[in-house]
């Protein structure tokens, strides 16, 4: 039986912090569903279709990760509903710093209330990637800074093109 984890996020854009969580998750699970949120309450730089393409290019073209072990989808539902759909009882979440913990703890608790069989597993990205956030990456690009330490080559091309 395949053990599947759901990794939800905005991935606007994907960063090395996200990628660390995916790589670590692949050591623990047979498959990771990278679930790109398309909720209306966010102001995204990229559409969900663009974010899915960016994630695919980053994971499969730039990093050559195993396509058989990663599913990339867009979603607008509750994450717990995605778990049901993919027969998973694990939600994977990344933690960067203590400031993330309060929000993530609350989110995990709400998901647990929605479905008592679902566990949230928190993974830390590597130390050098814990400071990276999609928001800061976008800000650096906007100010003409170098982001090659924060995300993949193809992702950088997509971001720069957006700000041209």
Strands, helices and their partners?
Elements: E1 4-9, H1 16-28, E2 31-37, H2 48-62, E3 70-75, H3 79-85, E4 90-95, H4 98-114, E5 119-124, H5 134-142, H6 153-162
Parallel strand pairs: 1-2, 1-4, 2-3, 4-5
Helix pairs in contact: 2-6
Structural overview:
The protein has 164 residues and is of the alpha/beta class. It has one domain: Rossmann fold. 43% of the residues lie in helices and 19% in strands. It has 6 helices and 5 strands; from the N terminus they run βαβαβαβαβαα. The chain has helices at 16-28, 48-62, 79-85, 98-114, 134-142, 153-162, and strands at 4-9, 31-37, 70-75, 90-95, 119-124. A 5-stranded parallel β-sheet has the order 3-2-1-4-5. α1 links the parallel β1 and β2. α2 (48-62) runs antiparallel to α6. The chain is globular and about 45 Å long. The model has no long low-confidence stretch (mean pLDDT 94).
Compose a concise summary of this entry.
The protein has helices at 16-28, 48-62, 79-85, 98-114, 134-142, 153-162; strands at 4-9, 31-37, 70-75, 90-95, 119-124. It is α/β, with parallel strands linked by helices and 164 residues long. A five-stranded parallel sheet has the order 3-2-1-4-5.
Q: What is the straight-line distance between the termini?
A: 47 Å
Structural shape: globular
What structural category do the secondary elements indicate?
alpha/beta
- In CATH terms, the superfamily is HUPs
Work out the helicity level.
40-55%
State the strand order across the main sheet.
3-2-1-4-5
Sheet with the most strands? 5 strands, parallel
Total separate domains: 1
Number of helices: 6
CA radius of gyration is 15 Å
Q: Return the CATH topology.
A: Rossmann fold
- The CATH architecture category equals 3-Layer(aba) Sandwich
* Total strand segments: 5
Low-confidence spans:
none
